[in-house]
Automatic annotation (TrEMBL):
<dbReference type="InterPro" id="IPR035902">
    <property type="entry name" value="Nuc_phospho_transferase"/>
</dbReference>
<protein>
    <submittedName>
        <fullName>Anthranilate phosphoribosyltransferase family protein</fullName>
    </submittedName>
</protein>
<dbReference type="Pfam" id="PF02885">
    <property type="entry name" value="Glycos_trans_3N"/>
</dbReference>
<dbReference type="InterPro" id="IPR017459">
    <property type="entry name" value="Glycosyl_Trfase_fam3_N_dom"/>
</dbReference>
<keyword id="KW-0028">Amino-acid biosynthesis</keyword>
<dbReference type="GO" id="GO:0005829">
    <property type="term" value="C:cytosol"/>
</dbReference>
<dbReference type="GO" id="GO:0004048">
    <property type="term" value="F:anthranilate phosphoribosyltransferase activity"/>
</dbReference>
<feature type="domain" description="Glycosyl transferase family 3 N-terminal">
    <location>
        <begin position="6"/>
        <end position="69"/>
    </location>
</feature>
<feature type="domain" description="Glycosyl transferase family 3">
    <location>
        <begin position="95"/>
        <end position="336"/>
    </location>
</feature>
<dbReference type="GO" id="GO:0000162">
    <property type="term" value="P:L-tryptophan biosynthetic process"/>
</dbReference>
<dbReference type="InterPro" id="IPR000312">
    <property type="entry name" value="Glycosyl_Trfase_fam3"/>
</dbReference>
<keyword id="KW-0808">Transferase</keyword>
<dbReference type="Pfam" id="PF00591">
    <property type="entry name" value="Glycos_transf_3"/>
</dbReference>
<dbReference type="InterPro" id="IPR036320">
    <property type="entry name" value="Glycosyl_Trfase_fam3_N_dom_sf"/>
</dbReference>
<dbReference type="InterPro" id="IPR005940">
    <property type="entry name" value="Anthranilate_Pribosyl_Tfrase"/>
</dbReference>
<keyword id="KW-0057">Aromatic amino acid biosynthesis</keyword>
<keyword id="KW-0328">Glycosyltransferase</keyword>
């Protein structure tokens, strides 16, 4: 048992009247002790549920990310390159069809450097994980160590940090999600973690507005000057079509204390129907993704174009969303994305 961890646990777990939030250094210490197994399973479980009940602060998240930076993996910086890091819940999607990977591929094809990260199917949702969708496109990131992933990233402009292999310390905490029956606040880190050593724009999906405020405070404390928040589908960074897409943008040239630039985007204003594509099954989703990569029509295609068009505009590749949509459509119909998938698969196989 760790006496030091017990004191931190007592601080957050003393109830609504005497409980207190951890400061940044304490949060980093608590996260470090959990990642390194210095806290016992009983202590980690107690911390997870107590912290969920209390709710984390932005300062606590900043401290936990400090520990991630100390212990976890990072893809090496590419000189002069700002990567875009897409943060989505690791426990996947269960209701709506995700298009994150297709967005990432279209961005990479347009010359962007894209980092995505995640693990296997996991509690509490047990939704479709990104790693399975990569596999469905013929790309097996599971087989690579971090150095090999770095080589693929440098060659293709896209990299996937696979947590079970690259960050086993964090993967060791995943079973607690099943044991306590809830996603602990530790899971929030997967939305704002940046496993890239260089300059980055972090895109973080969220569901509840208070979560966005925690992101903003954590980013401010850590000096993260460029980030985007998306009230996306099931907490992802996929823009919805059935309601307004609420996006917050923090540009690096603005003061850390400036408010976010707020975007409210409606799919119908850009020629798309107001219907999200349901997730029928993983197998059918992969069939749809494969068809889109081949340049074929699919019910999922409007969601892909809606999202890719936004992100191409957001990253300055296109002057507006409509042009971004057209760039994405042409990249798919002309076989550019199929070629990109083939190049990544070849690079992975050669590593």
């Amino acid at each position: 048992m760790s006496d030091a961890f017990r004191e931190l646990l007592k601080k957050i777990g003393s109830g609504p009247h005497t409980g207190q939030a951890l400061n940044r250094e304490e949060a980093a210490s608590a996260m470090r002790m959990m990642l390194l197994g210095e806290a016992t399973p009983a202590q980690i479980g107690a911390f997870s549920i107590a912290h969920r009940i209390k709710r984390p602060t932005g300062e606590e998240l900043a401290g936990m990310l400090d520990a991630y930076d100390e212990i976890g993996p990072q893809l090496g910086a590419i000189a002069g390159i700002e990567a875009i890091v897409l943060g989505v819940p690791y426990d996947g999607r269960s209701r709506t069809a995700p298009v994150t990977l297709l967005t990432a591929l279209i961005l990479a094809n347009a010359g962007e450097w894209v980092v995505v990260h995640g693990g296997d199917r996991m509690p509490t949702k047990y939704g479709v994980p990104l790693i399975d969708l990569w596999q469905g496109l013929g790309i097996d990131w599971r087989s690579l160590d971090l150095a090999q992933t770095q080589a693929v990233f440098e060659k293709t402009g896209i990299g996937f940090v696979y947590v079970p292999a690259h960050f086993p310390e964090a993967a060791s905490l995943i079973p607690y999600r099943e044991q306590i029956g809830k996603r602990p606040p530790i899971a929030t880190l997967e939305l704002i973690w940046c496993p890239y050593a260089g300059k980055a724009q972090i895109v973080s999906g969220f569901v509840h507005p208070p979560t966005e405020n925690m992101f903003r405070e954590a980013f401010r404390l850590r000096g993260q000057a460029h980030f985007t928040t998306v009230k996306g589908l099931e907490g992802s960074c996929d823009l919805p079509r059935d309601r307004a897409a609420i996006v917050g943008v923090k540009q690096p040239e603005r003061s850390p204390h400036d408010d976010l630039e707020r975007l409210l985007l409606h799919a119908r204003d850009y020629g798309f129907s107001s219907v999200n594509v349901p997730l029928c099954s993983e197998a059918f989703l992969i069939e749809q993704m494969q068809a889109i990569v081949k340049g074929e029509e699919s019910d999922l295609l409007p969601s892909v174009l809606w999202n890719a068009g936004f992100y191409l505009w957001h990253r300055g590749i296109a002057s507006n969303l409509e042009i971004g949509t057209q760039i994405a459509k042409e990249a798919l119909s002309e076989g550019q994305i199929a070629a990109k998938v083939g190049a990544i698969a070849e690079a992975v196989a050669a590593s």
